[in-house]
């Protein structure tokens, strides 16, 4: 018995009916975006004037990058110094 007969070999796609082709309505036209994509500049233009929307966009991007890290760091420091150390100081005061 071969390995493919046992079901361990690569499976082959069975030939079947091809998917149906959606007809294009007669009143439509194709749009060629190639000329616009060839002349477009990738990324942000560094020579563009500084506007309020660009400043707000950069500020929001920086906030999205730093705020979660600061919250995580603050929570970690709070749990370390607020939880562990305060329990030790409280235990020392109770024992004395």
* Uncertain spans: none
The geometry reads as flat
- How does the major sheet shape up? none
Structural class, from secondary structure content? mainly alpha
Number of strands: 0
In sequence order, what are the helices and strands, one letter per element? Answer: HH
Number of helices: 2
Mean pLDDT: 78
- SS strand fraction: under 5%
Oligomer category: single chain
Terminal CA distance: 82 Å
- Radius of gyration over all CA atoms, rounded: 32 Å
Residues in helices, as a percent range: 40-55%
Commentary on this structure:
The longest helix has 44 residues, at 52-95. The chain is 52% helix and 0% strand. The mean pLDDT is 78. It has 96 residues and is mainly alpha-helical. The N and C termini lie far apart (82 Å).
Summed up, what is this model?
This protein is an all-alpha fold.
Helix/strand layout:
Layout: H1 34-39, H2 52-95
